[in-house]
Amino acid sequence: VVKGIGDDCAIVEVERYRQLVMSMDTLVAGRHFPDSALPSQIATRSFCTCLSDLAAMGASPQWFTLALTLPEANREWVSEFSDALFAIAGEFECDLIGGDTTQGPLTITLQVHGFVEKEKALTRDAAQAGDLVLVSGPLGDGKAALEFLLNQDSFPMLDSSQLAYLVERFYRPEPQIEIGRRLLNCANAAIDLSDGLLADVQHIADASKVDVEIDLDEIPLSDACLSVAGGNRQAIHYALSGGDDYHLAFTVSPHRLSMIKDLIKETQSSRETLAKLSVIGRVVATSSGSPSVRCFEKGNLISMSDQKGYQHFAS
Amino acid sequence: VVKGIGDDCAIVEVERYRQLVMSMDTLVAGRHFPDSALPSQIATRSFCTCLSDLAAMGASPQWFTLALTLPEANREWVSEFSDALFAIAGEFECDLIGGDTTQGPLTITLQVHGFVEKEKALTRDAAQAGDLVLVSGPLGDGKAALEFLLNQDSFPMLDSSQLAYLVERFYRPEPQIEIGRRLLNCANAAIDLSDGLLADVQHIADASKVDVEIDLDEIPLSDACLSVAGGNRQAIHYALSGGDDYHLAFTVSPHRLSMIKDLIKETQSSRETLAKLSVIGRVVATSSGSPSVRCFEKGNLISMSDQKGYQHFAS
After folding, report:
1. Which of A88, A128, A246, B307 measures 20 to 30 Å from A98, CA to CA?
2. Chain A residues lying within 8 Å of B192, measured CB to CB
């Protein structure tokens, strides 16, 4: 950083063998978090969900900018928000270098910036027929957390550790930065799971012009998600279309399975305790002009439109 | 641009001898533009005001990102907004490379990115005692335009060309990119005038640890501004504290006056028809620990707190 906050612009330098990777995300009160969310929760959720996009490219975080729109100048609110933001940004060694503060309905826009070695970034368009499809951790938690936060009295069966787990998954989802970095030399395509597995894997299929087959039985699910969903079927449904999970989905050549196995072993003791790689499917050559994602249960193809509970994926 | 819209992040390359310059700005409906503003007007105002920060650093625009929060998916609105945005961005050869679209109260956040030769950027902290202070064009128009837009029936004395001029100054202020670039090898400090001359020049004074003296008689004013203000005194008041002018204020060593005179001659026939450089003051060594901005009228020091009409600058 040549110049951070305090002038008309921030100035930064990019080293010769690196490329700059950027992503911008907006969170609107009452839409991307409940109006009851604490300033510190809003800060960590905003930062972590935005950083997740850098993880999906295999990029190392460097700096971020913040546009904060607030209904009123509430010093206490701003102080809580800032403390939490600087704390979480510090964990990822990511510096605030600029932004804007305005008055209006509560809205947070962040832009995160990272570096990646030239031409090494993980993208959506590089999946190859024959690749395995993996995810970096349990899916469906984002949706389960939201269900819980919106109807807290409806889930008396959750124990306190499950409650804490879900609240944390919503307000401090772990950006899979370390996994992303390690995938740089072994994965083909990658994406972060913000819209739900089906929609996000479809992005890989479309960009790479391949079909993807998912084994529903292999999707990792947490106990908390299973509890909120009230069973396996609904939990799978959360995973497929709930969104907000911020794990990575990626594809690797089976030749690299040993690298991946080592990585799986390492992640089990990693700092990112939620990261636990699972193989959930494979990439196949597309049989038509329109790449598709197909799901299997115990080896049988599931028709998304016919299957009760999956119907809203038909459109 | 290695990768633009369509993946988790945008990827760009920065050449070896260049630095990356960035600025982020938010515009909130009803606050930074009237609720009655057309989508095309909102687009050009958002883009031009944000780009003005790059001008103040002497940077050349490269790319921008857009976070657009909209109350509803209104195809016609989005189409008008996008057409105008791509048109104005095209004029400055600045490409959209990413962003986010969300639902919520109408808010636009832009981040603009530009290049500048290493260590050449214009900053606020490089003014030297002895420097002349210049501005790139008439001041007070931003405030005059706002007065007119909020009370259109109160100004029957304005002719149609003055109306058109003021509306354009508000919705399509000219980012002084070309002037900024030319100042790289001759100006010391620079800033863009978004908060009003007094506040912005105070930023230069604070950052450079110098005092600044302004000759109020030398501040350039447009006929339209004088008409809306109802006279010279109020027009000066608009210039000093109205804000939203998006001209540059900068300081140069008197040894470079001949370079500046050439530049003044050129700007009179330049594409940026509103750019007309004027010397309005000078930088002096600060006499105390707290750098200040002093104003003179016909050579007499004006006391901002005593002077009727300037009183609200006292605080």
Report:
1. A246
2. 8
A107 vs B contacts (CB less than 8 Å): 69, 104-105, 107
Question: Please, where are the H alpha helices in chain B?
Answer: 39-57, 75-91, 141-150, 160-171, 177-183, 197-208, 223-229, 232-241, 257-267
**Residue B100 near chain A (CB below 8 Å):** yes
pTM of the model: 0.92
Q: Is B6 on the interface with A (CB under 8 A)?
A: yes
Q: Which of A127, A311, A121, A314 has the alpha carbon at shortest distance from A206? A: A127
For residue B126, list chain A residues with Cβ-Cβ distance below 8 A. none
Residue B150 near chain A (CB below 8 Å): no
Angle at the Cα of B180 from the Cα atoms of B176 and B184, rounded to 5 degrees:
175
Q: Give every CB contact of residue B40 below 8 A, 6+ residues apart in sequence.
A: B80, B81, B83, B84
Burial A69-92 (b: 16+ CB within 10 A, else e): bbeeeeeebeebbbebbeebbebb
Best B109, B119, B191, B203 member to test A by mutation, with max A CBs in 10 Å, is: B109
Does the interface ipTM go beyond 0.85?
yes
Per the CB < 8 A criterion, the answer to whether B135 and B176 are in contact is: no
DSSP B209: T
**Contact A180/A248 with Cβ under 8 angstroms?**
yes
- Separation of CA A312 from chain center: 22
∠ CA A35-A36-A40, nearest 5°, is 100
The reply to whether A237 touches chain B by the CB within 8 Å rule is: no
Tens-place pLDDT, residues B132-191: 999 999 999 999 999 999 998 889 889 999 999 999 999 999 999 999 999 998 999 999
